C-alpha cells in the first residue's frame, strides 16, 4: 500500500495546560515546561445568541480549535469539508439526560435532546461557519483520533481537496466518569491539504502498522495522551513542533496503528 | 467514481428478518408499527420494534458487548448468509483489508439508561456490571462487529444522526479509492431506547398514530429500530445483470439549525445534485426516489421542495417509514437495501399509512406498488444538525 500523503496547513490545540497551538508547540517542542491546569473553553463568539446559550462544552472546544487551525491555514471555514471525531457525545449532557430518564419525570428538554446527538458539534459548526460542505462525524472510542486522521486523509487523497479534522473530547462527570474516566477537555484540529502552500507546516505520509504507539517522554503529558482520546494525536503535534524529519506511530485500533512520516516544510 | 458492487446485503427491521420477509412485507404493503409497549415507556405513540431481539445471545467470548443494539446487530448479520459472505471475503482479501463502517445514533445507550436506575443509593455509583466501552459507547457496534469476524482493517462508526448509515458508503468509497482496503462491511444499527423516544417527544415530533409520510395530515414520526448491512467491493468486469451497484454519493450540510431542516431544502438539493453528478446521470435517468420522508411537517415539506427542484414534480417517490418507522441511524442502510430490492425485483414500493397525499408537496408520491423494470434509483437520508446524504444505486445491466 502506498502511504497517504497530505500537507498540514494549520493546527488548532486546546487542552489542560495547552492554551493554543503556539503554547502547545513550545511545550511539546521542549522549550517550555508543561504546567497542567484545567482547560478553559472560550465562549463561541461566532454563534448566534440563541445557539451560544444552548451550546455545550464539545461545541465550544470544537469551534475554538477548528477556527484556530483554519485561521492559521488562511482558508475560509465555509468552504472546507470537515471530519469530526470524538469518543462520545457531550458527557455532562448525557449524564443529565440519563438522570432524568431514571427519575419520575422523564420530560427532557428539547435543547438537552439535540445536544445529545454525536454530531452536535458538527451541527453548530455549520451554523457558526456557514459551511454547507460534507462533514463526516465519527467515533472509534480510544481510536477516535486515528480514525479521524485516516478519514480526513482519504478525503484529501481520494478527492484531491483540503479538509479540516476536528478531534475533540470532553470530560465525563460522575458516575459516568468511573466507567469512562475522561478527566478534562482536549481538542486537536488539523487543516490537511493535497498540495503544499506557503503556510504548510509539514508533509505527513501515513500508513497502517502493527508497531506499538509512541509514548511521550514527559510522564504528565503521557498520562494526558492516555486519558483523553483526542490526545492520542499529541505525538504527531510533537513531531511537527520539533521541525525535523520524524517517524511516529500513533495509537489507533487494538491491532492496528498509524505509521506517520513527518517532514517539515 | 468507480462503481462499487453491493455483493451481499441484508436488512432486519420491524417488517421482517432478512430480505425475503422484507420484500414480502413491501409487496403486501404490510407495516411493522404497533402501539408502544417498549420497556417502561409511557408515551402515546407507535413504534417499529424488531421481534425477539432480547432472545439473541452473543457468543460467550463477546459477552461484554451484550446490549440491545449489539443483539440487533448480530440478528441482522446472521440473516441471508451475510456473515458467511464476510468470512468468504476475509478468505479472499485478508482480515486487514476489509473495513467496517457502520452508522448508529444511540448505540447501546439503553444500557446506561437502565444502569442509572440501579445507582448505589449512598455513593451514586453505577452498578459494577455496567461496561461503558462495550455497550453505550458509540463505537461499540463496530467494535463488536470487527471482533465477531476477527477483522483488523480500518473501522469506525459514523454518527451523524439520521444520515449515519448513508454516510458510511461515502467513507467506504474513499477508503476503497485510496487502496487502504479491498472490501467494506457497511450499514447501520439503531435500537429502541428512552433517550430518542422521550427526546423526540420533547421536540413535539412524534405522532400518536403510525406515521403518515407526505400525508396532508402528517403529524410526526414513529420511531423504529433496524440492522442493515452491505458488503461493498470494487465492481468486477463481469457481473450478473441484476447485480446492484453504487454509482454516486452526494453529501452536504444545511448550516441552518440543529433540529429543523433548511426550509427550502437547500442542503438536500445539493446532496441530490452531487450524487447525480458523481454518478454521471441526468435527473431524468432516475426511475424512483426512496425519500427520507419522516412524516414531520417541516421535514417532508423541505424534502419535497428539494426533490421538485432537482427532479420536477413527476418523479415516482415514496417513503417506507410508514412501514418500518424511522430507524434513525439505521435508516440510510435500510433505504439502501430497499433500493437494492427494488432494482432486483422490478418493484417501486408504495408508502403506507398515507391516506391523502399533501397536494402542497407536489410530487408523484406512490400509494400503490408499481411492478416495472427499475434501472436506477436514488435514496435520501437527512439528519439532525442539518446533515444530508443521497445515494444513487443501479442495476449492473
What does this structure look like?
The complex is a heterodimer of chains A (265) and B (397). By secondary structure, chain A is of the alpha+beta class. Chain A has a single domain (11-197), classed as Thiolase/Chalcone synthase (Peroxisomal Thiolase, Chain A, domain 1, 3-Layer(aba) Sandwich), CATH 3.40.47. Chain A has 10 helices and 8 strands. An 8-stranded mixed beta sheet of chain A has the order 3-2-4-5-1-6-8-7. In chain A, strand 7 (246-250) and strand 8 (257-264) form a beta hairpin. In chain A, helix 3 (57-73) crosses helix 6 (120-129). With 397 residues, chain B is an alpha/beta fold. Chain B has a single domain (4-395), classed as Thiolase/Chalcone synthase (Peroxisomal Thiolase, Chain A, domain 1). The two termini of chain B are 18 Å apart. Chains A and B meet through helix 4, helix 5, helix 6, strand 3 and helix 7 of A and helix 4, helix 5, helix 6, strand 6 and helix 7 of B. Strand 3 of chain A pairs antiparallel with strand 6 (155-158) of chain B, so a sheet runs across the interface.
Amino acid at each position: 500500500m502506498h502511504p497517504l500523503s497530505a500537507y498540514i496547513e494549520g493546527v488548532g490545540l486546546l487542552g489542560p495546560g495547552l492554551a493554543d497551538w503556539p503554547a502547545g508547540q513550545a511545550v511539546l517542542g521542549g522549550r517550555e515546561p508543561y504546567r497542567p491546569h484545567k482547560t478553559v473553553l472560550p465562549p463561541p463568539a461566532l454563534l448566534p445568541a440563541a445557539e451560544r446559550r444552548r451550546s455545550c462544552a464539545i461545541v465550544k472546544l470544537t469551534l475554538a480549535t477548528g477556527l484556530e487551525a483554519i485561521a492559521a491555514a488562511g482558508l475560509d471555514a465555509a468552504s472546507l469539508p470537515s471530519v469530526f471525531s470524538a469518543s462520545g457525545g457531550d458527557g455532562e449532557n448525557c449524564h443529565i439526560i440519563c438522570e432524568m430518564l431514571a427519575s419520575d419525570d422523564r420530560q427532557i428538554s428539547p435543547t438537552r435532546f439535540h445536544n445529545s446527538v454525536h454530531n452536535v458539534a458538527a451541527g453548530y459548526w455549520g451554523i457558526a461557519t456557514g459551511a454547507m460542505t460534507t462533514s463526516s462525524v465519527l467515533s472509534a472510542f480510544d481510536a477516535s483520533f486515528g480514525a479521524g486522521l485516516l478519514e480526513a486523509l482519504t478525503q484529501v487523497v481520494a478527492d484531491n481537496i483540503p479538509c479540516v479534522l476536528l478531534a475533540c473530547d470532553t470530560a465525563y462527570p460522575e458516575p459516568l466518569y468511573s466507567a469512562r474516566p475522561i478527566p478534562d477537555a482536549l481538542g486537536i484540529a488539523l487543516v490537511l491539504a493535497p498540495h503544499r502552500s506557503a503556510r504548510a507546516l509539514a508533509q505527513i505520509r501515513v500508513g497502517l502498522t502493527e508497531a506499538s504507539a509512541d509514548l511521550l517522554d514527559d510522564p504528565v503529558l503521557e498520562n494526558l495522551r492516555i486519558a483523553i482520546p483526542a490526545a492520542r494525536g499529541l505525538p504527531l503535534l510533537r513531531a511537527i513542533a520539533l521541525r525535523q524529519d520524524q517517524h511516529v506511530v500513533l495509537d489507533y485500533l487494538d491491532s492496528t496503528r498509524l505509521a506517520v512520516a513527518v517532514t517539515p516544510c | 467514481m468507480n462503481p462499487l458492487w453491493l455483493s451481499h446485503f441484508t436488512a432486519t427491521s420491524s417488517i421482517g428478518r432478512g430480505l425475503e420477509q422484507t420484500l414480502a412485507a413491501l409487496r403486501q404493503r404490510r407495516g411493522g408499527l404497533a402501539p408502544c409497549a417498549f420497556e417502561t415507556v409511557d408515551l402515546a405513540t407507535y413504534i417499529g420494534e424488531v421481534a425477539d431481539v432480547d432472545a439473541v445471545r452473543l457468543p460467550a467470548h463477546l459477552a461484554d458487548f451484550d446490549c440491545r443494539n449489539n443483539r440487533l446487530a448480530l440478528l441482522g448479520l446472521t440473516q441471508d448468509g451475510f456473515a458467511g459472505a464476510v468470512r468468504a471475503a476475509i478468505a479472499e482479501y485478508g482480515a486487514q483489508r476489509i473495513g467496517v463502517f457502520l452508522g448508529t445514533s444511540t448505540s447501546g445507550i439503553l444500557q446506561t439508561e437502565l444502569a442509572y436506575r440501579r445507582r448505589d443509593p449512598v455513593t451514586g455509583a453505577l452498578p459494577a456490571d455496567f461496561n461503558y466501552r462495550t455497550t453505550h459507547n458509540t463505537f461499540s457496534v463496530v467494535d463488536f462487529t470487527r471482533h465477531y469476524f476477527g477483522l483488523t482493517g480500518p473501522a469506525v462508526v459514523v454518527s451523524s444522526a439520521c444520515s449515519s448509515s448513508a454516510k458510511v458508503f461515502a467513507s467506504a468509497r474513499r477508503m476503497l479509492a485510496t487502496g487502504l482496503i479491498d472490501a467494506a462491511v457497511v450499514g447501520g444499527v439503531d435500537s429502541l431506547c428512552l433517550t430518542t423516544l422521550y427526546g423526540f417527544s420533547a421536540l413535539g415530533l412524534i405522532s400518536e398514530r403510525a406515521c403518515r409520510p407526505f400525508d396532508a395530515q402528517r403529524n410526526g414520526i414513529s420511531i423504529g429500530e433496524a440492522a442493515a448491512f452491505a458488503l461493498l467491493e470494487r465492481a468486477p468486469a463481469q457481473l450478473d445483470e441484476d447485480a446492484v451497484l453504487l454509482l454516486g454519493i452526494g453529501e452536504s450540510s444545511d448550516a441552518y439549525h440543529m433540529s429543523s431542516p433548511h426550509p427550502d431544502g437547500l442542503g438536500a438539493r445539493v446532496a441530490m445534485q452531487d450524487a447525480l453528478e458523481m454518478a454521471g446521470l441526468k435527473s431524468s435517468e432516475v426511475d424512483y426516489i426512496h425519500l427520507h420522508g419522516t412524516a414531520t411537517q417541516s421535514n417532508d415539506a423541505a424534502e419535497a421542495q428539494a426533490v421538485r427542484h432537482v427532479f420536477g414534480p413527476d418523479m415516482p417517490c415514496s417513503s417506507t417509514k410508514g412501514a418500518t418507522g424511522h430507524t434513525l441511524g439505521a435508516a440510510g442502510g435500510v433505504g439502501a437495501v430497499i433500493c437494492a430490492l427494488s432494482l432486483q425485483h422490478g418493484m417501486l414500493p408504495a408508502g403506507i399509512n398515507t391516506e391523502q397525499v399533501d397536494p402542497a408537496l407536489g410530487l408523484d408520491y406512490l400509494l400503490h406498488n408499481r411492478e416495472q423494470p427499475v434501472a436506477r434509483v436514488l435514496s435520501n437520508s437527512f439528519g439532525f444538525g442539518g446533515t444530508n446524504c443521497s445515494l444513487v444505486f443501479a442495476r449492473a445491466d
